[in-house]
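Whiteboard transcription, Tuesday session. T.W. wrote the C-alpha cells on the left side:
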C-alpha cells in the first residue's frame, strides 16, 4: 500500500436519504471533497431500488456498480496525485510481481475500433451506427479469433446487448475443449449498450460465478469461434486474452 499525503479523498454516505446524509454532503462540499450518495446510485421502479436487496445492502448488480464507482474514484485520485508528484510510486519488485495474478499486457487483443482483423471471418467489420464499429454476424456467419493464454488464463469479450430481442444470443466455442459459452443478446433495460464478460478461463466452474470454466490450459492457444445461436444478428466489439 502506498500512503499519499494530502491525497484526494472520496466521501461515501449512507443508502437512505436523511438529514444526516445532507449534513455529510455539506461538510464534503465545504472542503471540496468529491462524494457519491448510495440513495442516488440506483433507478427506482414501483418505489423499489433494483440495485438493493434492502436499504443497507446491494444486490449482485449493486456490488458491481459500487466496485466500479469506487475503483474509478480511487484510481482518479491516484492518477491526479501522480501527475502532481513525479516518481511517487516505488519500482515494482520482481518477487512481488511473481505473486500477482496479473499480466503486463494482453497476449491477444482484437478491437473493432482499431480495425484488428480476426483469424477467419464470414462476418463483416463495419459501423452499423456512426462511430460504433463491430464484428457483425447474422444467419450462419461466424468469426474466429486466435486466443493465446498465459500462466493464469483470462478472457474478456465485449459485445452489444440490446432489448426486445434485437440482438441474438452468441455462442462461443473453443477448439480442443468441446466447450461452449452463451452470451445473452437481450436484457430488460430499454437501451442498447456494450457488455463486457470476464472469464476465468482455466477453471471448471465457481459457485455464483457464471462466467467461469472454459477448460483451457495455461500457455495454450485456441481458435475461438463466435456465431449467432438462432441465426440473428450479433455484434462483437473486442476480445482480449
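and on the right, the sequence the group agreed on:
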Amino acid at each position: 500500500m502506498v500512503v499519499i499525503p494530502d491525497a484526494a479523498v472520496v466521501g461515501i454516505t449512507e443508502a437512505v436519504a436523511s438529514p444526516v446524509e445532507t449534513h455529510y454532503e455539506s461538510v464534503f462540499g465545504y472542503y471540496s471533497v468529491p462524494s457519491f450518495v448510495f440513495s442516488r446510485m440506483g433507478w427506482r421502479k414501483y418505489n423499489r431500488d433494483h440495485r438493493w436487496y434492502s436499504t443497507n445492502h446491494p444486490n449482485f448488480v449493486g456490488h458491481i456498480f459500487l466496485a466500479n464507482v469506487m475503483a474509478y474514484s480511487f484510481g482518479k485520485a491516484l492518477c491526479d496525485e501522480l501527475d502532481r508528484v513525479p516518481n511517487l510510486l516505488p519500482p515494482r519488485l520482481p518477487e512481488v510481481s511473481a505473486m500477482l495474478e496479473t499480466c503486463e499486457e494482453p497476449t491477444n487483443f482484437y478491437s473493432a475500433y482499431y480495425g484488428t482483423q480476426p483469424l477467419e471471418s464470414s462476418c463483416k467489420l463495419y459501423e452499423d451506427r456512426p462511430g460504433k464499429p463491430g464484428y457483425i454476424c447474422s444467419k450462419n456467419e461466424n468469426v474466429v479469433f486466435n486466443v493465446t493464454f498465459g500462466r493464469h488464463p483470462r478472457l474478456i469479450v465485449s459485445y452489444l446487448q440490446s432489448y426486445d430481442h434485437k440482438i441474438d444470443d452468441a455462442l462461443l466455442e473453443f477448439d480442443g475443449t468441446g466447450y461452449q459459452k452463451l452470451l445473452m443478446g437481450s436484457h430488460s433495460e430499454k437501451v442498447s449498450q456494450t457488455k463486457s464478460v470476464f472469464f476465468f478461463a482455466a477453471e471448471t466452474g465457481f459457485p455464483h460465478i457464471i462466467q467461469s470454466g472454459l477448460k483451457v490450459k495455461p500457455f495454450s492457444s485456441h481458435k475461438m469461434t463466435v456465431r449467432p445461436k438462432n441465426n440473428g444478428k450479433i455484434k462483437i466489439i473486442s476480445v482480449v486474452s
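Someone added at the bottom: Residues 60-84 form the longest helix (25 residues).
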